[in-house]
Amino acid sequence: APIIPALNDHEIESLLEAAAKAGADSASFVLLRLPMEIHALFVEWLEAHFPDRAGKVMSLMRQMRGGKAYDSRWHERQRGSGAYAALIGQRFRAASKRYGLDAPRLTLDTSQFCRPVPLGGQLPLL
Fold this sequence. Notes:
By secondary structure, the chain is an all-alpha fold. It is built from five helices and no strands.
C-alpha cells in the first residue's frame, strides 16, 4: 500500500503472487490518500520523479475521488469510486483469489472481553 494509479498499479498481481509465495493467506489494499498538506508534497515529489506521468496520475486520482484529489468520507478514502477504482478493485480481488489470498478473515470473539478493574482508585472512562 498504497496503490497509486498509473505509477504502481501494474504491480498488483506480482505483489500478490510474491505475498502468497512468502506465506500470506489474505491481502487488502488502500488507494493513495492525499489529505491536507500531503497533497502538495506528493505532487511535488511526483513532478520531480515522474514528470511524464504526473498529469495522468493526478487525473486518475481526481477521477477516483469525485473530481477532488482527496475524499475524506469513510470507505471512499480507502477505495475511491468510479470506473478506474472499480477496475483496481476487480483486479485485486481476482489476483487475490488466484493466489489464495481471499481466505475469510477471522471474526473477533468479544464474548471473553470484560472491563478491567480500575487500579489506584482511578474512575473508569464511560
